[in-house]
Amino acid sequence: MRYQRIHAGVFQARPNRFIAHVELSGKTEICHVKNTGRCRELLVPGAAVYLEEAQNPARKTRFDLIAVQKGERLINMDAQAPNKVFQEWAEEGNFQKNLTLLKPETTFGASRFDFYWEAGPISGFVEVKGVTLEQDGVVLFPDAPTERGVKHLEELVKARQAGYEAAVCFLIQMERVEWFQPNDGTHPAFGAALRRARDAGVEVLALDCRVGPDFLEAGRAVEVRL
Length: 226
Fold this sequence. Notes:
This protein is α+β, with helices and mostly antiparallel strands and 226 residues long. Helix content is 17%, strand content 46%.
């Protein structure tokens, strides 16, 4: 996926989870943060960030904060991007052979999954999770407790028991990582739910991404360690 009208700035502060103060061309801009996670290890004062200028002049905030530089890594932190990247990747034939349908936002049971798909006689559901937390080359999810994430995994198990294929894809919004694992230290219940889902036949995928100030593209499969 591609972004338009990109500007480089310097992160100053995050008064709340929705907005950030960014220095841009010598002026402080109030920007929309497209990720409600903690992102404490990313949004530190002085960090280089990239902003997308909004197309709608009537918006309250003129810019969206979409990426941040962490050491040598550029990390995309747009929470809306992983689904778009997964869809592009799947439609290119990388997810299922002979894919005939990939439908976003489909309800099953008590959850709305990111995608429902069909390929010949088989069909299934996919939930996509964006990953931005990295520690010494290892990437982890979640960066904050997520009861919603646990619920999604439980519903994927129910879908699998009902005869559907089921998968969760952790879309890693950076490249050059070692492996993916659940963040048991932050939310042990999510890690436990992920292992139960794996044991019940839910496929657990992880993909890294090629990242630039103006693009995010699916890269290679990353080892999953549960």
